[in-house]
Design goal:
about 50% strand, mainly beta, two-stranded antiparallel ribbon, 23 strands
Length: about 475
Amino acid sequence: MARKLPLIVGLLLLALYAFAELCGCNLCSCGSGQCANGQCARHAVSNAAPPLPPPPCATKLQSSMLCTVPQVYGTGGLILPNPNHAAHFATSEKNFQIPLSVSVGTELSLLSIPSPASGVLFTYDQTLHTYVPSAESYGPIVTERAETIGKHRIFVAATYQFFDFSSLDGIDLKHLPVVYSHVEFPIGGQIPAFEHEYITTQNRIDLKAHQTTLIGTFGLTNRIDVSVAVPILDVRLGITSAATIVRNAPQPVAPSDPLFATTVDGYYHFFNVNDPAGSVNQVFSNFKSAAGIGDVVFRIKGTVFKGERFRVGLGFDVRTPTGDAENFLGSGTPGYKPFIAASYAGRISPHANLGFQYNGQSVLAGNLGTATSGKLPNEFFYSGGVDIAVKKRLTFAADLVGTRLSSATRIRQSAFVDIDGVAHPDIPTATLYHDPVNMIDVSTGVKYKPWGNLLLTANVAFKANDSGLRAKVIPLGGISYSF
């Protein structure tokens, strides 16, 4: 019997191993119903995880300003430091921060440039047989008039504008709520309790742009001008995001719970792995800036009708993609803008403009994750106003200026909807949609002629509606001289 004892023990071990294989749990001590995929359920859960999403920005763009907002939580997005399960979160909008950044970049690239050739005009004096400065008003500031500056005359100017953007589609950029839900990954056909947790964020976006524009105009003939406008931009973009984990699953999880292995010390989600119980709040930030030449604009304008007082001019602008679009200094694509300008010459001079700009493919309207381009929205421009020669050396100008984008990514605030499809009216979040954008500003300013043909300009534009990326007030100062 003693000789057969090793054989009997061996047979018993073999039988036990076979039984474990039938159970599918290789000698593990699983309770009833806890065996899954050849492992104890606790281990199966800890190994079960969806693949990490791709980074919000392609490698080639990660150092650019375009990725300032998408990478506020890091280059990989909002992923919590739980080593035992893939704790990554996303908004209900796929890659929400990407189109937000794109909408900022798109509209920032469309900043208005003050009007070339809006200063002292020269008219031919039949008595003196020479060109003399016109006694009429000095013209509009941010829009066009039909007149040209005069044959072989030269106009040079420098203007400065400051943009402190405060809202995007009526939502305060200093208080932008965004809610992130846990990425869904069913386990055993069910969504585990910890995936019902979400993260609320309150975001502050600070976006400022300083734009200096150098302008030159030359009168080819009495009726045709050519102009060039060179914008120089200094753009600064920063984002601060205060994030809070909302725990709605019972915690801490007991060690006997099958999901305990997905936690750290019984907690599913946290910002600090060394303090899983208490680290439910975290402030993230990111900041970038860039400066350089923007998109250079070339213009040709001609007076096609010249009555005693009423004039009509046609023009054509070509915007060249000389600015660095990846750093919000340019549009990233050529733009072509035909326009018409009508004006009435006199001490009180009303004027109106209409124009359309066609834009091509740009990284600003594309996918940052793949660094591919998309169609930049086309633009329709319209304006109307009046400039008044208040005194011999002083002109007052006022305009209503409108810009309509054919279609753009827009933002609105709505109730957060959790992964079960339940809306929470008390938890606001920003969502995206596509729609035309109609931006309207009211502009008022003065031009003063201290001596000779030197003009000093001061102007303020106020937003008249909330559509698009807006600054409440846009101050402008300028100096120009006509030869």
